[in-house]
Amino acid sequence: MNWKTDLRAxxxxxxxxxxxxxxxxxxxxxxxxxxxLAHHSGRHLYLDQVEVRARCKxxxxxxxxxxxxxRKREASGFxxxxx
Length: 83
Ligand SMILES: [Zn+2]
Known about the structure:
Helix content: 10-25%
Number of domains: 1
Distance between the termini: 13 Å
Radius of gyration: 13 Å
Largest sheet: 3 strands, antiparallel
Number of strands: 3
Shape: globular
Order of helices and strands: HEEHHE
Bound molecules: zinc ion
């Protein structure tokens, strides 16, 4: 059990985004919870399921992604988090 199995995109606030790193080529892309919720199945998925479904967008890679949670407002003084 970890935060990915506990949380769905709908549980995330507007101040976080998901960082997806390709395990194969190292490419990084960011995903807003809104993007997940825009998919018809996204609102029902826990984040570990989103992570399993994520694939690298680099041409010819299609590698599996590792998900991390990032707070947008680094400068706000918020310390901690659940990543
Ligand atoms: Zn890749």
